[in-house]
Amino acid sequence: MRTEVELFDVFHETLDKLAGDGILLVAGDPPNPMTIGWGTIGHIWNKPMITVMVRPVRHTFSLMESVKDFSVCVLPDQYRKQLSICGTKSGRDMNKMEHCHLTVEKCIKADASFIAESTIHLECRIVHKHFLDPVTLDAAIIKRHYPMNDYHMIYYGEILGIYRNG
Ligand SMILES: Cc1cc2nc3c(=O)[nH]c(=O)nc-3n(C[C@H](O)[C@H](O)[C@H](O)COP(=O)(O)O)c2cc1C
Predict the structure, then answer these.
(1) 15, 21, 24, 34, best to mutate for ligand 1 pocket (most atoms within 8 Å of CB)
(2) Start-end of H helices in the chain
(3) What is the pTM of this model?
(4) Which atom of ligand 1 is the closest one to the Cα of 33?
(5) Residues 42, 9 contacting (CB under 8 angstroms)
(6) pLDDT for 22-76, tens place per residue?
(7) Which of 40, 58, 95 is the best mutation target for the ligand 1 pocket, counting ligand atoms within 8 Å of the beta carbon and taking the most?
(8) What confidence tens digit (pLDDT) does each residue in 141-166 have?
(9) In Å, how far are 32, 33, 63, 156 from 103, measured between CA atoms?
């Protein structure tokens, strides 16, 4: 049973997982889960907002370019292996949902899917996107994270709904 909650109720746990083993960005139909470790959660244009960063080489990039909505799912601690698979294997080569025995459910407010096993999920709508601009990016960050010039696309997702399991 999913309960709709406020951003502050999930903020700490979501950021903690993002900076830890990661959380799942789920996009497309059939939905593909990709582990993400970088992003921000905040308040922009008077809306609760999440930004996620996707390199153009990812299968998820082509999916995000073809949808309006996506979800972000926080998995329980015992799903480290699944997070590792979703962060190293591509949905181009396999159905990661099936491979990881994850259950797909339709979102409540967004035209997307989420993972039933998640403890928290955020339903999001893309309202803005842009590539990172190397002209204005710190040189040390470019050197460390972008030796191949594969700058992330940053997607701004308006958070339409925030849900907790239980
Ligand atoms: C902990 C962790 C965090 C990651 N964070 C990101 C991220 O924020 N953005 C990104 O583009 N890739 C990130 N990756 C890499 C993708 O998850 C990985 O390349 C994945 O296999 C891409 O899947 P796809 O081809 O199905 O989209 C991360 C991987 C791990 C293990």
Answers:
(1) 34
(2) 7-18, 59-64, 80-86, 96-99, 139-145
(3) 0.98
(4) 26
(5) no
(6) 999 999 999 999 999 999 999 999 999 999 999 999 999 999 999 999 999 999 9
(7) 58
(8) 999 999 999 999 999 999 999 999 97
(9) 12, 11, 19, 26
For the chain, list the domains and their CATH numbers: 2-165 (2.30.110.10)
Residue closest to 58 by CA, chosen among 82, 84, 12, 89: 89
Beta partners for 47?
44
User: Whose alpha carbon is nearest atom 15 of ligand 1?
Assistant: 87
Measured from the Cα of 38, ligand 1's closest atom is: 8
60 lines ligand 1 (CB under 6 A): yes
For tokens 């999913």, the residue is 2
